[in-house]
Specification:
The structure holds three protein chains of three kinds.
Chain A (H helix, E strand, L loop, with lengths): L2 H31 L14 E6 L9 H10 L13 E8 L5 E7 L7 H5 L5 E3 L5 E3 L9 H5 L6 E2 L19 E2 L5 H5 L6 H5 L5 E5 L6 H8 L15 E4 L2
Parallel strand pairs in A: 1-9
Antiparallel strand pairs in A: 1-8, 2-3, 4-5, 6-7
Chain B lengths: L12 H27 L14 H16 L1 H7 L10 H21 L19 H24 L7 H24 L12 H27 L3 E2 L1 H31 L4 H10 L2 H23 L7 H28 L8 E5 L13 H24 L6 E2 L1 H4 L6
Parallel strand pairs in B: 1-3
Helix pairs in contact in B: 1-12, 2-4, 2-6, 2-7, 2-11, 2-12, 3-4, 3-6, 4-5, 4-12, 5-6, 6-7, 7-8, 7-11, 8-9, 8-10, 9-10, 10-11
Chain C lengths: L3 H19 L23 H22 L8 H8 L1 E2 L5 E2 L6 H9 L32 H6 L16 H8 L1
Antiparallel strand pairs in C: 1-2
Classes of the chains: A alpha+beta, B mainly alpha, C mainly alpha.
Chain lengths: 242, 401, 171
Amino acid sequence: MNNFEQYRRRFLGGALATAGAAMVPGLMLVEMAHSRAPEEAVSSKNRWGLLIDTTKCASGCTECVTACNTEHGLSGKTGPQDAQWIRKVELTHKKSGAQHSLPVMCQHCEEPPCVDVCPTGASFKRADGIVLVDRHICIGCRYCMMACPYKARSLVHEDLNDTQLAHMPRGKGCVESCTLCVHKIDAGENTTACAQACPEQAILFGDLNDAGSEIAQRLATYASKEIRADLGLNTGVRYTGI
Amino acid sequence: MQIINREIEGNSAGYWALLGGLGALILIGLFAAYNMEHHGHVITGMNNQIVWGLPHVFAVFLVVAASGALNVASVAGVFGKKAYKPLAPLSALLAIALLAGGLAVLMLDLGRADRAIITAWEVNPTSVFSWNVVLYSGFFGFTAAYLWTMLDKTAKPFYGFAAYGAFIWRLILTTGTGLIFGFLVARQAFGTALLAPKFIVFSLLYGTAIYVLVLMPAYIWGQRALGDEVLRRLKNMLVVFIAASFYMTLVYHLTNVYFAKQWDFERFILQDGGIYTILFWLGQVVIGYLVPFILLVAPNTRNSRSMLMASAVMIVLGALAQMYVTIVGGQAFPLEMFPGFIEKSSFFDGEIHAYTPSHWEWMLGIGGTAIALAMVVFAVKVLRILPESLADDVVDPHAKK
Amino acid sequence: MLASWLKSAALGALIALSPLATAADGAGVPAPVIQKAKGEQCVEPTEYMRKNHMKVLNHHRDKTVHEGIRTKQHSLKNCIECHATPNEKGERSVLGKDNFCQSCHSYAAVKVDCFQCHSSKPAGNGAMHPIVSTQSGAGSQTATSMRHHSQGKSPSLNTPLSVKDITGVIK
């Protein structure tokens, strides 16, 4: 191939790449045009989830935890009675010594055991897959905390004395857990505080039902797993790298 | 000879002291509940790792014993053993009282106890707790009706229906109580169907033991005749139920030990678990099963009333130990989210969860027990629950000596 | 078959407690202070709100939590945005001796459960989008355009309330 041919190929490649990049904003605008109006109810058209790449997750880094605490007005303390919606778990393989680090939060299961056991239906799964606690009807029995395979739920053990953030009501005697930043999703921001905060972009938020979304494509391409896949809960939070 | 039921006089200083003492314990329990509600569960030893603690140990024990306490009446009403008929009213009363005490503890421990009433209409058909709202209320109804048919001659036509209804309802209720834990797939201690029949067998043992613990003092303090025949029958029931409970415990642990994935948990309970291991072996097995069994079977001691009382006390202590190991021990062992890995986190993953009950929890649990006992002490004074005499010739004139 | 001493005691207690019943006419209990909220009028007419605000909130909260419907019209957060006024500590809040929610509820002796969990203060961090801008004195067009057309005159919020108004709320 002579120089002209090489030059032509490079030119065409660059032109195509530029044209492709120019189209991306248009595609994103089309996505946003579909976002939900405030008076519209959520539907199962979407299923929100997270994909966490544990190979990017640094041991000792807790940016996601800090971001979650700040976003929701949690104290950040780690005593036995303090609420933790997300925590970093450090794993060491018993035989090989291999180490992993990953954040664990409510896994937003499709078949949540916490929803099955709640006597009042306060623990419920929203149509778009987010598992939440309706704290208006939570009686604080803690059965959901017993049932959760991921120990995702926390009880608020003491009075919060009006220190709550306006967008995150929480109160003494009720049970709570990661809300997948439902307030951000409903506001159209379509991300979570932990995903935004991760310096390595290890946490990817997206719509599992949208085949074109990055999360769906990655799940279709790379091997990923659920924690406690043996329970058959079909979680919305998936992990790669372990 | 006709069995005549009569209220106890209940005028002695001893009676009022007993009722007063139970009343004081109830007030202390209510004070604990007030504080827990006002300050939140931060004042208790329960936390995000051990979410159900000592109050639940007491409450589940009382509820399980309540169902078993009805057994004496069922033996008369359902299985037709006439010798147990005079014992039936106390059995039904005890069942109601124990259930009331257990439910009081459960409901006062709720994080939002003021919202407990909404469970009446916010029903989740897959939740055992929702079923229990119906099952426990129905149990009160059936047992109260059963007691009525025993006490009121005009209600006799409904006796059979009430007896069978209460019996079947009680089996469903205890199944439900066992399945509270049986349905928890995630925890290694639970998630097995065996817990339902295990709880039914336990209920028979605990309920009968409490029956003995109430009957004997009632007749001693009430200065009424209590013959050997009645006690012999109760003792024989206890022996059978101890053996059955031991069998259930054995099968549960044996199966768990068989599964490699359960070894860590079983090693924790049976060997390394500190307080849980002590409570299991010494509390549940030795004090709860072995010693009472020997005392009730050995020729030297099986006819002794004091040994019968002592055995009943030990069975109750063993019961509390069993509940503690099941409920708290089951939570103390961490969830295994990543088999094959050692887990470590700020949320106590991978470590044995610590729990020290606070005095508030003791107060609440004992207060609930006091509610149950106070109800019995009061009811035998105002209702004709206890037969005037349970002497041998009264109870079963044809009994072999 | 009550013992006679019991009968006398019960009668005495009934007589002793009866003056409390006459306190319903408001004598001796301070009337609630209704501080002026932001904007010209509420999202619904005042009379409607006095009678129905709890039903409105109860209904809306279920729609928000379970269906993700976050319209601002009946949202509690939006109420707080306008109705929060400075309390004794100088923070804008709906709780406090003379502040909006607590003042009426104390008078009516109806426990308000919301603020065990909900913040009584308006959002200030911009993470959500407040209807009314947090600059004082601003009555933004967005806020006004969200109001219903009121039926008639807009009642002044500074008139003292009579017992009849409050008992209408309780009913």
